[in-house]
Amino acid sequence: MSRIILRNCPHRVLQVSLRRNANVRGFAAAAATSFDWEDPLLAKTLLTEEEVAVGETAERYCQERLLPRVLQAYRDEDYDSKILREMGELGLLGATIQGYGCAGVSTVAGGLITRAVERVDSGYRSGMSVQSSLVMGGIHEFGSAELKERLLPGMARGEILGAFGLTEPNHGSDPGSMETVARRHPQKTGVYLLSGAKTWITNSPIADVLLVWAKLEETGKIRGFVVERKDCPAGTLETPAIKNKNGLRASITGMIQLDNCPVREENMFPEVEGLKGPFSCLNSARYGIALGTMGALEDCIARARTYALERKQFKGNPLAKYQLVQKKLADAVTDATYGTLAAIQVGRLKDEGKATPEMISLIKRQNCDKALHNARVLQEIFGGNAVSDEYGIGRHVANLYVTQTYEGQSDIHSLILGRAITGVQAFA
Amino acid sequence: MSRIILRNCPHRVLQVSLRRNANVRGFAAAAATSFDWEDPLLAKTLLTEEEVAVGETAERYCQERLLPRVLQAYRDEDYDSKILREMGELGLLGATIQGYGCAGVSTVAGGLITRAVERVDSGYRSGMSVQSSLVMGGIHEFGSAELKERLLPGMARGEILGAFGLTEPNHGSDPGSMETVARRHPQKTGVYLLSGAKTWITNSPIADVLLVWAKLEETGKIRGFVVERKDCPAGTLETPAIKNKNGLRASITGMIQLDNCPVREENMFPEVEGLKGPFSCLNSARYGIALGTMGALEDCIARARTYALERKQFKGNPLAKYQLVQKKLADAVTDATYGTLAAIQVGRLKDEGKATPEMISLIKRQNCDKALHNARVLQEIFGGNAVSDEYGIGRHVANLYVTQTYEGQSDIHSLILGRAITGVQAFA
Amino acid sequence: MSRIILRNCPHRVLQVSLRRNANVRGFAAAAATSFDWEDPLLAKTLLTEEEVAVGETAERYCQERLLPRVLQAYRDEDYDSKILREMGELGLLGATIQGYGCAGVSTVAGGLITRAVERVDSGYRSGMSVQSSLVMGGIHEFGSAELKERLLPGMARGEILGAFGLTEPNHGSDPGSMETVARRHPQKTGVYLLSGAKTWITNSPIADVLLVWAKLEETGKIRGFVVERKDCPAGTLETPAIKNKNGLRASITGMIQLDNCPVREENMFPEVEGLKGPFSCLNSARYGIALGTMGALEDCIARARTYALERKQFKGNPLAKYQLVQKKLADAVTDATYGTLAAIQVGRLKDEGKATPEMISLIKRQNCDKALHNARVLQEIFGGNAVSDEYGIGRHVANLYVTQTYEGQSDIHSLILGRAITGVQAFA
Amino acid sequence: MSRIILRNCPHRVLQVSLRRNANVRGFAAAAATSFDWEDPLLAKTLLTEEEVAVGETAERYCQERLLPRVLQAYRDEDYDSKILREMGELGLLGATIQGYGCAGVSTVAGGLITRAVERVDSGYRSGMSVQSSLVMGGIHEFGSAELKERLLPGMARGEILGAFGLTEPNHGSDPGSMETVARRHPQKTGVYLLSGAKTWITNSPIADVLLVWAKLEETGKIRGFVVERKDCPAGTLETPAIKNKNGLRASITGMIQLDNCPVREENMFPEVEGLKGPFSCLNSARYGIALGTMGALEDCIARARTYALERKQFKGNPLAKYQLVQKKLADAVTDATYGTLAAIQVGRLKDEGKATPEMISLIKRQNCDKALHNARVLQEIFGGNAVSDEYGIGRHVANLYVTQTYEGQSDIHSLILGRAITGVQAFA
């Protein structure tokens, strides 16, 4: 297993060594002038050398270390929290952040990491997205200098684990109606008491720090609080796991139950108020999903293609010879490459300060929708065999349903786009 | 729990008592002249009184006895083999067979039973379909008089359990290429030795009798053999379970491994040769699937509708108020009622001797496709909550994928229909 | 050309003679036990002998007399008003009405007539629907005895032509907001003056009587007025044609412009108020559309199938051998037969008084949507050749778009259904 | 009307002047950091200054000069051959060719021209594509130096009009089976006699030079011949127009009928043999279609958005407020921007010599399919009003069907892609 650490890696060396490793997925292998079904429109020509290297480091780790774990983890609904530490060692966490021990790579490079992870499993990517984009990203953007210095380096190493508490049992698509509240402590100055419940919180059962969004009683405005588990008196913070999930079973999900949980004022984000804070975090995470789901789709394509070539029916013809199979593959390959190009473009715009939230909505919605749709269609190629979890395709299908619904359900993003296009809002 | 036995039930009494039972699903409750979302085109007006009563008996059993079991069974990938005995007590097994202790009801009534069972779970319906249509149906149609007398009454009571062995590891959509072979015993007259492997066999691990299709060595023709487990010497028959399925987890699935397994000549179907035998069995089972999947879809509709009415977002509006949600419901309701009407029509034609296998292909394909498609679309209404198995919708989605692939994968039925429409075959 | 008149036809004789006529479309020809791609689920077994005969009369007329005219009529955007007279001679107009010289056949028989006409062209069917369902139906249901006696017999013969004025330039899906108004004549007792404009009115330029819906000034309630052109002073009624249509070019469409047009009180429907009146008329017309569009779809199937069998590409294989072509045909055939069965069921319910408007919405929406969708998919089989109007498929595609939008645009029907399913309205 | 000629235009000046012109479509107007529904992912940031200027020149010409003509031309099925001369004056013809009086712009710039033209009408774009890509491109790539010098400058000015003869009545998707033949003249050295028929040939009735592909009798190999109408003896070349088309009515289409038509050897492409020649020409044209259809789709979006904002129904709400309408717009906008990004990427690869024909197949197929699909869905927003040709949407829908079928029908491209993905061919 590679010990190369991203945040100070000599990329050129890495790249060469990777190309020699025949066992690793041929990420950039095909000659530029033949058709490469893994990268049909040569999206890789849009990447910098550094980005290619980051992608290859991530792909190698994921294929070598994550892939062998995922089948059993998904069966057992188990998440190995060492994974985040391993990712931290490679510099994959919070990779787009400058400083604080983070790699400081481009938005696109960050997306290539999520793509590599989600090529294995959307649950693994979810665990990483929460750590990187939602929590580290949130603290980096909105936290005080002290908070950043204190938490980000450990989070970057995967030693401090984070969770992001926005969604509530009765408020999914509509977080503005949240009921979790922060009151000033009646006695202790500079302390808030948080009460309320959050649900569907990735990593909550294992998190050391929980970025919780709550309404400040005195203003009625939403504020962000970094709850540190080690500081919570018994009975004020519970994070029970949610079990028996239909998807994302290789990630861990839970609730956050706060009962007058004390949080120091220094752990409240000093300036940001309202939905701007959580939406900004979501924006980064959604970007990672947009490119990440393309990894899951590409893995479905690769698996379906292999199956179609190996499975023979009717006079020994491979399934790949059937027109109905070829069309499914052609459609999926097209959507994967279109989605990748769009995500790269938005990544560039993000780094140039030109990306709007609606652009992220657009690629998050489309890429999740298309990844899910095509994964389902490709699953048909496996016929009844897809029911066996060994083929992996059913796992991707189940996972991708979840990606379509979280961080903005698809229809909600349609209405966000509709509003941006027409100037008229249609939510209610 | 009702002890009323179908094969001699006083239907009128049953019907009245059901209507008084407010806890039971309102199967036939709505006044005829208002719009009933559970039966929008009043398919029930096409049913006889007896059929309505059969349907209600089945619905009551399924809602009262199966529904409470399914969540845990699906989680644990466990099948309670008492279920078939309970169904047997109520006369639900082999219900369309005349005599041998069977109820002798119409094809449509048989379909109403599968619909009731599949409203709870497609896996439960699969377990029953194998017993009723594939094995009992096969023995009834092709078995010797002795075999029928000996096996059918016990099977009708659910005391003898059956499995149907057609699909092989390398031959799914193309059973004509099967490799399982039956050779004459070199010493014992009137005995065949079966060798080969079958896979994805519902009920095989718990089956007492296994209807196995094999090529007779001397003719190269496919023949049907009823393998009785109690008569198989050790090591000649193994039926290991297949675990870790993505769907139909509440049914039990396994392989059939035959190693010179001796079967008496009396247990070979005397006349039927080639694929005509298994295809005839499949034809009946497929009919049951066509109406059965409408039950699963109807349950998805009912669950999604309830969720949409109860879940409030954005200013307290129920999801049901959103146009995008209403369209999903309207589409699903339409497909459910169209599929039901078509299945009833084919059931009538079947009883009149006018149904062709292509008609069954047509309704099996369409109803499975539409049940799956709409279940997935309705699942979106639940957003992230669908990931919790408590809502049931994810289970239906996963199950319905399997129904689309078994007993003729959807694309294969498309080509069967294409051939019937054009006279040209396009399989290879 | 057949001179047999429907309203007193000896059906048995007709039926026999038709079967001998090899040139007529094999409406009921296939033996019951083989797969008939023109009627895959044997919907014809649900018809009475009389209904079969009515259908055959209509089919014969349409194939013999309408089909030869339609290509040129569509090119020239011309409607031959003799068509309604010809239909009248055969008893095809207002056929479901009892008395007044009408045939008094079942709702399903009426639908078989629309299906026969729309098999040729949706525009021809539109012209007939307006006469039969919207105007004759409206007068029959709501008109005074005098009005019925005076107008219906001539309309049944196609000597008096009708148009139905509901839609206004600014009020399509929302007729309740109509602006056309009826004021009492300031001097003449028993006379109303109508003012306003109606648009997209089939047959308006050639109509003798125009059923116009207007708001009665004194009550603000919508009322129905039968405007007789012959009684309108110059300048009070104009009905200019709308030209350059993209579809339904073989029907004639226009506006109705009323400027203080005097109508006698006897020509106002005496009792019905509000939208109940026009919606009731639309209900009947929509039923005809639901079965009618299945005729257009069936014609697309027949044309595409013929083309696919005759057109050879790549080594002389007919297109029909391609899997992608077979799937298109299989899908279309399935939707056609499902739509037909559903429409027959609703027709039966209508005659039994059990049909609700939502049922009609359901089949109108679904059958128009599916006819249009499949027509478009089948069009692909023709490749570039579909651009030639000689193949007819492009005409059906263009027509079917219109059927999807008129008498309730598809999305509006989705919301009508959504409201019926959930009890919550989502129109605005 | 701008007289600025592309091939020597001072782009910077042009650009500034355009921005002052408020009546011209705001091609590059939006500030970079707000969401621009006309360019949601800021594809324009990928363009060079020159490309932006070329696009603006083309857009201005098309909006100012073509748009006012198209409604009547489409009604009358008439093509004004002055259009090509006007385009020639602006340097829009053969714009990607270096030398010979051509502008020598990038592939993407060439695509921006087709997009501008197709924003008005696909037929106008077809007429230009034939001239630019198929004929000028073919002569430029394969013709002798003499032929290039003699023909290209006049073609670039639009004074010599071209047509491209590949498709035959019986050979559409399979041109390798063509029947047109070139025989050596029995007497005259250096002369070939061409015989055969080509159909669906854009511009053939008005063409001065016809690039005809024929099988050379002596080798059986396909060769390209530039037939010059002025040199053809009477009766050897006929180019009758095909009328009554369902789409592309603003372009002129015809046949090419050759009866021992003499062509000098110098007019035969000297080296290229087989399908490589025509496929190379098609490759360039397909690229133009891929970006061109995005223009048509963008125009549909703009028209639908305007309609949705202006049309009020139900309590005065604009249609734009309806969720079902917003989703249609969001989907279309997404597909337009994805398709544009993909086409730009392939354009860049083409100029770098990295584009394969499969890449062109991929974007041609996807962009045509999506343009057509979304145009149809957007059409629904117009309800019945779309039937009036004044709204333009029906024209785009009809045109886009044709683009989906020509230069490789969509399914054929699916199989080309399927072959490239799997290595297995499935054409027959």
UniProtKB/TrEMBL annotation, chains A, B, C, D:
Domain of life, source organism: Eukaryota
GO function terms (MF aspect): fatty-acyl-CoA binding; flavin adenine dinucleotide binding; glutaryl-CoA dehydrogenase activity
Catalytic activity entry: glutaryl-CoA + oxidized [electron-transfer flavoprotein] + 2 H(+) = (2E)-butenoyl-CoA + reduced [electron-transfer flavoprotein] + CO2
Domain Acyl-CoA dehydrogenase/oxidase N-terminal as annotated: residue spans: 48-159
Main location: mitochondrion
Keywords from the UniProt entry: FAD, Flavoprotein, Mitochondrion, Oxidoreductase, Transit peptide
Gene3D superfamilies cross-referenced by the UniProt entry: Acyl-CoA dehydrogenase/oxidase, N-terminal domain, Butyryl-CoA Dehydrogenase, subunit A, domain 2, Butyryl-CoA Dehydrogenase, subunit A, domain 3
Cellular component terms (Gene Ontology): mitochondrial inner membrane; mitochondrial matrix
Annotated Acyl-CoA oxidase/dehydrogenase middle domain residues: 163-261
Localization annotation: Mitochondrion matrix
Family: Belongs to the acyl-CoA dehydrogenase family.
Protein name as it appears in the record: glutaryl-CoA dehydrogenase (ETF)
Organism: Cercophora newfieldiana
Lineage: Eukaryota, Fungi, Dikarya, Ascomycota, Pezizomycotina
